[in-house]
């Protein structure tokens, strides 16, 4: 490109050189050739890989931020599911104590609470994945080499959230199944 058409920054000029060997080996010859034309021009050298890497630094940083925010969102979702499950178990402690007093086993109480917690998660996943699929078409312009309706990604997210919900619901469920029915029924 002619120097006068180099409009974005008139203080610098980039010269691209294709070499047969390692680019670093050609720096001396290029510096010598440039000094013959204009000895007072300062030069700096970088490989095309370094130049391209600097060009995508902003995108990498944004991707890192999105990943960090996603990790924080998973932690908040885990805390939320745990809080809701713990509150529901606390509110149902009399019912659970009555069930156990009438002969329900610890395992059946554990299964009941986990099943109800996973039912809520499944309902949330159906709604969330539907919204993600609908908005994925609009995000297609900002996605590179990723399909907006990638079944592997959706399956991975569903599996991750199901495991998170199972883990978050397991602690309140174990606590509820260990309730002494006599103490719960006398507490009123």
Characterization of the model:
The model has no long low-confidence stretch (mean pLDDT 79). This protein is mostly helical and 188 residues long. Helix 3 (57-91) packs parallel to helix 6 and helix 5 (106-136) packs antiparallel against helix 6. It has helices at 27-37, 48-55, 57-91, 93-101, 106-136, 151-177, 181-186. Helices cover 68% and strands 0% of the residues.
Which terms would index this structure?
mainly alpha; rod-shaped; 188 residues; 2 domains; 0% strand
Helix-strand blueprint:
Layout: H1 27-37, H2 48-55, H3 57-91, H4 93-101, H5 106-136, H6 151-177, H7 181-186
Helix pairs in contact: 3-6, 5-6
Count the domains: 2
Radius of gyration: 31 Å
Largest sheet: none
What is the 3D form? Answer: rod-shaped
What's the helical proportion of residues?
55-70%
Mean pLDDT: 79
Share of residues in strands: under 5%
Based on secondary structure, the structural category is mainly alpha
Low-confidence stretches: none
End-to-end distance, in Å?
A: 86 Å
Number of strands: 0
Order of helices and strands: HHHHHHH
Number of helices: 7
């Amino acid at each position: 490109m002619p120097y006068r058409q180099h409009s974005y920054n008139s203080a610098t000029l980039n010269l691209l050189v294709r070499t047969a060997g390692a680019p670093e080996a050609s720096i001396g010859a290029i510096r010598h050739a440039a000094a013959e034309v204009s000895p007072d021009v300062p030069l700096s050298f970088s490989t095309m890989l370094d130049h391209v890497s600097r060009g995508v630094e902003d995108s990498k940083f944004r991707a890192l931020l999105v990943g960090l925010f996603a990790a924080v969102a998973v932690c908040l979702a885990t805390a939320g599911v745990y809080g809701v499950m713990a509150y529901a178990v606390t509110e149902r402690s009399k019912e659970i104590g009555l069930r156990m007093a009438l002969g329900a086993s610890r395992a059946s109480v554990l299964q009941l609470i986990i099943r109800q917690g996973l039912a809520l998660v499944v309902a949330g996943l159906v709604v969330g994945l539907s919204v993600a699929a609908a908005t994925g078409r609009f995000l297609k312009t900002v996605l590179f080499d990723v399909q907006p309706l990638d079944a592997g990604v959706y399956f991975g997210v569903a599996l991750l959230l199901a495991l998170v919900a199972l883990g978050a619901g397991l602690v309140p469920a174990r606590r509820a199944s260990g309730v002494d029915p006599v103490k719960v029924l006398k507490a009123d």
